[in-house]
Amino acid sequence: MVDLLNLQCKQCGKWSTAGAGYLPSFSQELYCQDCWKLRNEEVLSYPIDQLANQPAPHWLQLLKVPHRPLVRNKGPFPWTDLDIRKIDESLRCSIEQLYADVQNELPSHPGQRCLSEFFTSLAASTEFQMLWAGERRGPFVLPTHFVKNLLTLDDILHGLSAPSVRKPCESALTLTDGADFRCPISLPPIRHMAELLDVLQYGTIFLNTASLHWTVAAELCLAANRAFQFPSNINVYVTGPGRSVSTDVHTDNHDVLVLQSQGAKHWRIFAPPLRMPHSHPLFRGKNDDRLLDSELHEPLLDVVLHPGEVLFVPMGFPHATGTEGTGGTEVSVHFTLGLSTADYDLCLGGLKQSFLQEMGLTKKEEMSGKSWWQLLLPIPVGFLVPEWIRESEAPSQRYIQEIVKQLLEVSAAELLESGKSLGEISECAEQVASKRLMQQVAVLNSQEEAYEEVINSGDRIFFAAGPEQTCSEYRRSMLRHQIAEDERKRCVADASDPRFVRRIDPMDGVARTFSELQRVHALSMAEMDVYWQKCESLYPHDQPPAELLQELQRASETCKDLLYFLHKRTPQLKKTRVQSFASRRPAKTESAHCFGENREKFGSRRIPLEWIAVD
């Protein structure tokens, strides 16, 4: 909250004890009336007549919106039908209104039109816009019946066993004990259901960019792209029952819609923690970062997703998942549909960064938490564009004017000290905004071409074509990048190379490389040389056993070698043999399972088997 009894003008430094006449900027900084007037005249003014009589821009399609489907009255929200174990009271009204806005009564096996109606009604909902890109950003859950069995375990095996040069798609097995040990292993081809179920006893299978291979994932992405006007991608997660931690608590750098297809999964979503000096809010809990329990408050939403239910998790909101305590015995299969805004720089912050670079200005880092998150909001396109702009006589001109005004507003602190003329500022801002919008259109068009290629492939389940056989440039470039990364990981340099050697950090027991320790603790090279000697080595002379390296290499080649490795090196992660058949919907439990309780420790040190040092 702004203290209206003790205010200081951001520009001239003048103080006021009355609070009258002080106006907030986009970043919640305050200006006295004189400086506010000067700011608007010198920085924020942008004459629209400069845009008059311009030819229709290439990005004009971003203003168009699909026809909003008619949503019939479905009655009150079915709270008793969902397994919601805890919900912040502030979310209840939003979810009820969203349920009334969204078309979710669809056939059990929908076509592309049905998918489009769901995503279009969601994108058009004012309530969704507030939860996604407004002042009330937060999670929600909805019943969406068409999601049930949209992708099955048989469909996944069909893809993982498809003929290919080495592996049919980018996939990995994520291993974690929910505490200090976590590692992804590249997944080899899997030919039989028995092998797939055996692998799932040890961790969660992750199918990267599944929308470039599985037809139904491509259909979902194509419908989402057209409804939201932002790039999208789908990853698929497959987890056996009874696993307390499927993925460690973490944040993502994009907003996601989770669509539960089979089985059940327990989700807890938390409000963003306070920003830490050496941790990026959108990458918490990843790589060498750890999100501590002390940083998290009570969950905003604690829910078990069952087939036919959809969950929304905004970027930067920590979430923890597992299958223990759900009451089910079936394998959990869900889509994670990511809407790319900030990760593609299709947000105010990305626009500002490009603008300041073009102007030769340096970004000011001092910023309140609220203003920092404000810069991550998406550039308004599609349904996010105010209706009065879309229906005006010159929509493209009005639209670019509003974007430029927002851009100049969030860049006001840098521009006021730049000494640049209004003409230079206005011209550069328009060029940067137009270029970014054209880039957004180009990405959407390239993704649409790729997803249509997958949808129209001969195999109606899985498209196995490699980069040389694909027609779309987007799919070709993505597959080539994945192959290059896979080869890089397989041809790791000497394991004693300083880039890969890890030692145990005495501060928290986490294994880190020299460079990771230096970044986390902000130490100089001289200080790091001393600190490095205090860290316990994982292996004698920092050299992993040759036998271990050979086993890791073979584990990514065949499923037989992978299972041998898992049985030998990670027996503590093994769960009961999972089932492939569907089970009845379990009865609700009275209390939520607490993630991370009674975490098992292995051996005398906190890191049980640190062969992740050579991944």
TrEMBL record:
- UniProt xrefs under Pfam families: JmjC_2
Question: Which InterPro entries does this entry report, sorted A to Z?
Answer: JmjC_dom, NO66-like
List UniProt keywords, sorted A-Z: Dioxygenase, Iron, Metal-binding, Nucleus, Oxidoreductase, Transcription, Transcription regulation
Keyword Magnesium included in the entry's annotation: no
State what this protein does: Oxygenase that can act as both a histone lysine demethylase and a ribosomal histidine hydroxylase.
So what family is this one in?
Belongs to the ROX family.
Q: In which organism is this protein found?
A: Durusdinium trenchii
Full protein name: Bifunctional lysine-specific demethylase and histidyl-hydroxylase
| EC number(s) given by UniProt | 1.14.11.-
Domain of life from the UniProt record: Eukaryota
On cofactor binding, the record's note says: Binds 1 Fe(2+) ion per subunit.
| Chief subcellular location | nucleus
- JmjC domain residues are 198-356
